[in-house]
Write a structure and sequence with these properties.
The protein has 492 residues and is α+β, with helices and mostly antiparallel strands. Helices cover 64% and strands 11% of the residues. A four-stranded antiparallel β-sheet has the order 1-2-3-4. A hairpin with a 2-residue loop joins strand 1 (114-126) and strand 2 (129-145). Helix 5 runs antiparallel to helix 6 (150-216), helix 7 runs parallel beside helix 12 and helix 11 (360-426) packs antiparallel against helix 12 (432-466). The longest helix has 67 residues, at 150-216. The protein is elongated, with a radius of gyration of 37 Å. The two termini are 50 Å apart. This is Efflux transporter outer membrane subunit. GO terms for molecular function: efflux transmembrane transporter activity. Residues 1-31 form the signal peptide. Its main location: membrane.
Length: 492
């Protein structure tokens, strides 16, 4: 018994190196400790004549559900249809599923693959003599023990790529909400412009008829009639153009929505801004940009590149593979299942160490580090683009109301001028050219006001989008979703 005990102890000591290697497999990776780079943008939004004073919660846009931001039920219905049916968004969501599957494939590679086998053979040894053998085995083949975290680094890189695709999908959702809203508003504005062109054409037709009668009476000249016809034909051309534009606007909406919808969901005219969209404060701090989905996607890509450095470094160190099988063997298949078989096993560890590879492993590390620096620049560029988008939207927000007020006054003045000029013309005081000039000025100013009203509404939508709005669900906050994504990643 003492001899057996001594032998057992010696075998235990021999297994210590293998046990130590297995413990090393649980150590941290060789990837650098990740630290988010400093955002290369000012902490405060720009200030100056173009910018209104900002106030309010910096996270107001991100925490405001789009159903609360957009108050028109027809537009809400179209947006929901688009979120359910838009084909580009579907492709993006499938990219997320593909990235998740790729991560699970890589994570599964960290675990040994265990296979079971059952085999039997019968062979002739010599004349009149046959040999039978049967085996039932369970084992793993060439399982790489992750001594230096190469596989764990690769898994982390895949996980971060998956999370980046999730954030990309969230960004696509925000973009789609904005595109549907802008397309809906553009259709409304073009319908307003079409109505205005029709009204102008009718007024021009009436003026043309009056001029024709005055020509017959010898009061007006053919020059006056030709001028009246010019205005009428110009308005008719605008009617044709806006009719086409309205049809194309509807086609654009149909493509974005991804299915047929009832025309009752379409606007008949451009609505008032206060009744359609909520106003969004930008807040004072620009760090709200770091929670935008596109910025988060860039950061996850950066973290993936960081993990890839660890995998590249691990390639320069020894690797240990293990093949092991165990089972039962007998000369008869039946003995395997009745307890008459003998035990068989094999254990074959394999250690390999790179000695000379022409510098390829070192170059791979340099490549991974360069890709990381590239990802840093991409993240910084994304943050800067986000800052510029918000700054541009704020600059328009700060001046658009002044422009609206001025153009509204212009339209009122032009309307009064046209009414007076037309009355003076009808009473024979002024020539038709004065009335015609006033009509053209009124028409142009009305078109400009419609376009500026559209720009005002579009600016509100843009500001909501670039501040990260559109993800929060009713009665929830946007902060819960990234956490859910990370928890889902951890749980597989």
């Amino acid at each position: 018994m003492r001899v057996i005990s001594s032998t057992s102890n010696r075998n235990s000591w021999r297994l210590l190196p293998l046990a130590s290697l297995l413990l090393l497999a649980g150590c941290s990776t060789l990837a650098p400790d990740y630290q988010r780079p400093d955002a290369p943008v000012p902490q405060q939004w720009p200030e100056g004549k173009a910018y209104a004073a900002n106030s309010g919660d910096a996270k107001a846009a991100a925490e405001l559900p789009w159903q609360d931001f957009i108050r028109d039920q027809r537009l809400q219905t179209l947006i929901q249809l688009a979120l359910d049916n838009n084909r580009d968004l579907r492709q993006t969501l499938e990219d997320v599923q593909a990235a998740r599957a790729s991560y699970l494939v890589q994570r599964g590679g960290e675990m040994p693959t265990v296979n079971a086998g059952l085999s039997a053979s019968r062979s002739k040894v010599q004349a009149g003599t046959t040999s039978n053998s049967a085996q039932a085995t369970v084992g793993m083949s060439a399982y790489e023990i992750d001594l230096f975290g190469k596989n764990r680094s690769l898994t982390e890189a895949e996980r971060q790529s998956w999370l980046a695709s999730e954030e990309t999908a969230r960004a696509a959702r925000i973009t789609l909400i904005g595109e549907i809203t802008s397309a809906w508003l553009t259709l409304a504005a073009d319908r307003n412009l079409l109505t205005l062109a029709e009204q102008t054409a009718e007024n021009a037709r009436q003026a043309m008829e009056i001029t024709r009668k005055r020509l017959e009476m010898g009061v007006d000249s053919r020059v006056d009639l030709s001028s009246a016809e010019t205005t009428w034909y110009s308005a008719k051309a605008d009617i044709a153009s806006y009719t086409t534009q309205v049809a194309q606007d509807r086609n654009a909406l149909w493509l974005l929505v991804g299915q047929n919808f009832d025309d009752s969901l379409l606007p008949t005219e451009l609505p008032a801004s206060t009744g359609l969209l909520a106003d969004i404060p930008a807040g004072l701090q620009s760090d709200v940009l770091l929670q935008r989905p596109d910025v988060l996607a860039a950061e996850h890509s950066l973290q993936s590149a960081n993990a890839s450095i660890g995998a590249a470094k691990a390639e320069r160190f020894p690797s240990l593979s293990l093949t092991a099988t165990g089972g039962l063997a007998s000369s008869a298949m039946a003995d395997i299942f009745t307890g008459g078989a003998s035990t068989i096993w094999t254990l074959a560890p394999s250690l390999s160490m790179p000695i000379f590879d022409g510098g390829s492993s070192k170059a791979q590390v340099a490549y991974s580090e360069a890709e990381y620096r590239k990802a840093v620049a991409a993240w910084e560029g994304t943050v800067q683009s986000a800052f510029a988008e918000v700054a541009d939207a704020l600059a328009r927000r700060g001046t658009i109301q002044q422009q609206l007020d001025a153009e509204t006054s212009v339209v009122s003045a032009a309307q009064r001028s046209y009414d007076l000029s037309l009355a003076r013309y009808q009473n024979g005081i002024d020539s038709f050219n004065d009335a015609l000039d006033s009509q053209r000025t009124l028409y142009s100013s009305q078109q400009g006001l419609i376009n500026t009203r559209l720009e005002d509404l579009d600016n509100r939508v843009t500001l909501y989008r670039v501040l990260g709005g559109g993800l929060a669900e009713p009665n929830t906050t946007a902060d819960s979703e990234p956490a859910a994504a990370v928890n889902g990643a951890a749980g597989g």
